[in-house]
Amino acid sequence: MSDPEQFDLDAYLDRIGWRGGRQAGLETLRGVHLAHALSLPFENLDALSGRAPSLAPADLLAKMVHGGRGGYCYEQNTLLRLGLEALGFPVTPLAGRVVVGAESPESRPRTHAMLRVTVPGEPEPYLADVGFGALGALLAPVPLVTGVESEGGGRRHRLMPLPHQGPLELWELQAYDRRRQDWAGQYAFTLEPFTARDFEVFNWYVSTNPRSPFTQRAFLQRSTPERHLSLDGRLLTETRADGTVTERKLTDEAQARRVAAEEFGITVPEGLTLLS
Questions:
Q1: Count of CB atoms within 10 A of residue 214's CB?
Q2: Domain of 177, in residue numbers
Q3: Closest Cα partner for 129 from 105, 152, 108?
Q4: Which CATH number is 172's domain given?
């Protein structure tokens, strides 16, 4: 889907701190996925400022690789796709419905982007996703095999089938919730392929619709194997690997910009107000 020669692979790998091999194999996929997930924060600041973020490769490199910024799912997974394709992986974009807090998968639109990655020498493809803005986000790719538990970056995930009326098999990504000691659904998807043109439409809708949560308040997220840190409006939440949760509310704009820089590694654009 992209021309690897037009993508600055060296700059991308340097930004995420990947010093490992570049052969298209499972070790490389896992390493690049984890490095990306730990290095590039989730954020919606373009949508908060009233514009749709560009998904053009040059603009993603300028913003996320060279500009001290992160991005949300369309940006994150487009950038990951470009990097993986430059490394020689066949990649198919997918779209899913977020089920966290939903009555059913059908009650939500397909507004989340993820990737199906073919790994040379492996019998099954992998689900890759570095752009899910929630505690159950993947840090490592998971095999597209029903019921197989996978652990990566200190988190546990599995894929389970869901009954539905359509002709294609419906998968649900589940994350293990240590506090509840149970599996929790994150999003549901089929293996129907999508294109960059599809995501241009989804991206515009999510980033400009006044009913979209991304146009209403700031969402920042950063993960490490030890903790998950998120800012939802004024609420800063730290969830440790053992399930311990600490919350505090930010009180002023200067504090919010300092937290964005120091805790999330995000350079907030001049003129943008983080706290409403």
A1: 20
A2: 15-200
A3: 152
A4: 3.30.2140.20
